[in-house]
Write a structure and sequence with these properties.
Elements lengths: L6 H8 L6 H7 L3 H5 L8 H22 L5 H11 L2 H11 L1 H4 L4 H5 L6 H19 L1 H22 L1 H5 L4 H11 L6 E8 L6 E9 L5 E9 L2 H17 L10
Antiparallel strand pairs: 1-2, 2-3
Helix pairs in contact: 2-9, 4-5, 4-9, 4-10, 6-9, 9-10, 12-13
Length: 249
């Protein structure tokens, strides 16, 4: 089993040199390594603390940067920024897989490439940074490597940013503000095998007189995705009406 590379390289990527190197070593130690007697502690407790640190720093930053955003949109943006998928990308860029301390069985099963193990180690490392030198280095790293680059990417790619919006909720807010009944979503077509379904949903919004004000369709691999697309199409139509709806910019 190959020895992990020197931790100085990871410290450079983190922008923090540990006074207590044992904290970083523990953050990188999977339970399989500890269970084989190779280490006294694993990173599970540090992961618990690091998750809380990440959530707090991200929430506060979004709260201060976007005071005009609703609680719902702040929550969706935060959920994306701290998601396993996003954190895994950051962990891979930093080379966390190379530095993991794994048991022999986990090593042989490809543990260094496992998303969950890399994300756990990343979160544990945040806690290790706090315990080593306080919140400042952890906060600096979170904002500079996890939060701000992804927010910039979303701002530069509107299609990605729009995926964070809850179009159904926005449409429901519009109908309520105009005294209309709630939007009606109906599955009009379901195709494909069980493991690869494709749904087509029709959305109808009636006005106070019971006439169809909006009729749109959406498609997707799940009913929810199809409903969201139909709601998005309805919102796009409403945006063409001056003064009808305000989008979440």
């Amino acid at each position: 089993m190959a020895s992990p590379p020197d931790l100085a390289r990871l410290e450079e990527a983190l922008g923090h040199h540990f006074q207590r190197r044992d904290l970083l070593e523990r953050a990188l130690t999977h339970s399989s390594h500890a269970h084989e007697g190779e280490a006294q502690f694993d990173n599970e407790q540090l992961e618990f603390l690091g998750d809380a640190v990440l959530g707090y720093v991200t929430s506060r930053y979004l709260f201060e940067r976007f005071p005009e955003h609703s609680e719902g949109r702040l929550s969706k943006t935060k959920a994306h920024l701290v998601s396993t998928r996003h954190l895994a990308g950051v962990a891979r860029e930093l080379g966390f897989g190379d530095h993991l301390r794994l048991g022999r069985g986990e090593e042989l099963s490809g543990g260094r490439e496992k998303t969950a193990l890399m994300v756990d180690a990343l979160e544990a490392t945040l806690a290790a940074m706090v315990l080593d030198a306080g919140m400042e280095p952890a906060q600096r790293f979170i904002l500079s490597r996890i939060v701000e680059p992804e927010l910039s990417r979303l701002e530069q790619h509107p299609d990605s940013s729009r995926a964070l919006e809850d179009h159904k909720s926005l449409l429901q807010e519009w109908t309520q503000s105009h005294g209309y009944p709630q939007p009606d979503y109906r599955v009009i077509q379901e195709a494909g095998p069980d493991h690869k379904k494709h749904f087509t949903v029709e959305l109808r919004v009636q006005n106070e007189n019971g006439n169809n004000e909006i009729v749109e369709r959406g498609e997707g691999p799940t009913k929810k995705r199809a409903e969201q697309q139909a709601a998005q199409h309805a919102l796009d139509a409403l945006k063409q009406r001056p003064g009808e709806i305000r989008t979440q910019e």
